[in-house]
Amino acid sequence: MGSISIFTQVKASLDQKKVVLVAVSKTQSHEAILERYALGQRVFGENRVQELTQKQAALPKDIQWHQIGHLQTNKVKDIASFVTLIHAGDSLKLLKKISAEALKVNRTIEVLLQAKVAQEEAKQGFDPSTLLQKSLLSEIAALPNLQVCGLMGMASFVKDQEQVKLEFRALKDLFDELKKSGHFKPEVFQYLSMGMSGDYQIALSEGANMVRIGSLIF
Ligand SMILES: *Cc1c(COP(=O)(O)O)cnc(C)c1O
Prior knowledge:
The protein contains nine helices and eight strands. The protein has one domain: TIM Barrel (Alpha-Beta Barrel). It has helices at 3-16, 30-38, 49-58, 76-79, 92-104, 128-131, 134-141, 161-180, 200-205, and strands at 20-24, 43-46, 64-67, 85-89, 109-114, 146-152, 191-193, 210-213. Strand 3 (64-67), helix 4 (76-79) and strand 4 (85-89) form a beta-alpha-beta unit. Strands 7-6-5-4-3-2-1-8 form an eight-stranded parallel beta sheet. The chain is of the alpha/beta class and 218 residues long. Pyridoxal-5'-phosphate (PLP) binds next to strand 8.
């Protein structure tokens, strides 16, 4: 089966479940993106700022660009004027920088908090226990021109489906705790971004309502 027909199937099934599909277009050509745009896809995700800014300049203006990978503070200014959602809000320093750059361009920037639940060293994000500290949450919630819209995380890259499931479950529990914490408006704190090509079906069964899928649909 070609990648376009897989894309169409995945999109239809996610639309039906009211799950947001972030089509991860890193390393993909403009043509490949435009083919999926023509089929109704509007949300695309990139993880490198330089590639993101080039694609944003060249491609249709109604594309909603999500920055999905780790973001360096010195790069925030390059995307502040147009980015729709930053998934990897992984430190207070970065969140402060996003707030400051959003203020400069007179926008409110939407972000997700990234939590580290995977066992792997390389993964970024806040420790779940840190994220539940009231002082940290109040400080984040008070940052001007920044809106925290939910939580993002990744499971370990392992064959063990049970481990992946437990990690997604930990993210969902944390998402629910944060929603209940009262620091963020519940109608705004609404997205749980988890699941990629290899594990999005497990993520969906554990409560994801936003998935980031690349290789499977390109
Ligand atoms: C690349 C990437 C994805 C998509 O990965 P696939 O396995 O190609 O679906 C999702 N999330 C992040 C943060 C990524 O960097």
